[in-house]
Amino acid sequence: MNVFVTGATGWIGSSTVDELLGAGHRVVGLARSDASAASLEAKGAAVLRGDLDDLDSLRRGAAEAEAVVHLANKHDWANPEETDRAERAAVETLAEALVGTGRPFVVANGISGLVEGRAVLETDPSPAVGPDSDRGGAENLALDYVGRGVRTIITRFAPTVHGTGDWGFINFLMSAAHKQGVSGYIGDGSHAWSAVHRSDAARLIRLGLEKAPAGSRLHAIAEKAITTRTIAEAIGRALDIPVVSIAPEDANTHFGFVSSFFELSMTGSSERTRELLAWTPAGPTLIDDIIAGAYKEARQQ
C-alpha cells in the first residue's frame, strides 16, 4: 500500500515508517522542515511538505494515498486548547478526503482519562465528544466516518512508549531524578502505568493497517501495570541514587509538569488486540530499558 503518515519523523512515527517500509509498503511522510524531509528521504520514503495547520497538504496526502496513519500532534502543554483544535481539524480533513473509499485510517490516541478506577479496555468508548473535549474529540469524530466508508482504526497508546532516545514522560522523570539527586515516587508509589516498546507499537500500527476491521480500537500495551515506585526504583538503580517518597504537595516542585501524570494510574488491557491481530510484544520491558541505559541522555539535561 501507499501509506501517508503524519508525524512521520516523530518518536512513534519514525519507527512506524521503518516498519512499513520493511514490510514492503510505500510511505509518504509529512515533513515541516528540511531536516525532517532529508531523514525520510534517506530511509527511502517520499516527502510531502507541510504541517498540521496546512490542511491543503493533509487533504492532498490523504487523497493520493491508499491508507493514512495519523500520528502527529502539537503536544503544546502550555496551550492545550490549540492542540485540541489542531487535532480535530486534522482528523476531519483527513477523514473527509477518505470518504467512500473504504481505505484504512489509523488515528492515534492515549489511554489517559478514558475511564477511572480500572484498566481501560478496547471496548471502552472515549468520553471525549465534541471540539471542546480532550484532543478535540478526535477519536469519536474519526469513528463517525466508519458509516461514511472510511475504515477507521483507533490505536491507543500506553502512557510510556519507551526505547532509546525516548523524550516522553520517562525522560522527564529521569531528568528530575538527576537534577534532584534522588529518584522519587509520589505518596506510596502504588499508582501504575502501562508501557510498550516503540518497536512493538510500530508493528501494531502496521498490523492494524493491514488487517483490523473498520471501527476497531487497538491498544498498544505490552505491560499492563508497572507501579510508579517500581519505575522510580529502576531510575534510582540506573543513576545510582537514593529512591524516596515525595509528598503529593511537593510533587510539582520535584518533578515539574510530569507530576500531574505521575500521580495518576494510567493502565489498560490489550487482550482483545492481541487476539484480533496475533500481536505479541517482543521488545524490552520498560524496567529493562531504564536499567540498560536507554535514557542516559536525560541524565545530562
Automatic annotation (TrEMBL):
Domain NAD-dependent epimerase/dehydratase: 3-212
A Pfam family assignment: Epimerase
InterPro entries, per the entry: Epimerase_deHydtase (IPR001509), NAD(P)-bd_dom_sf (IPR036291), NAD(P)-dependent_oxidoreduct (IPR051783)
Gene3D superfamilies with a match to the protein in the record: NAD(P)-binding Rossmann-like Domain
Listed name of the protein: SDR family oxidoreductase
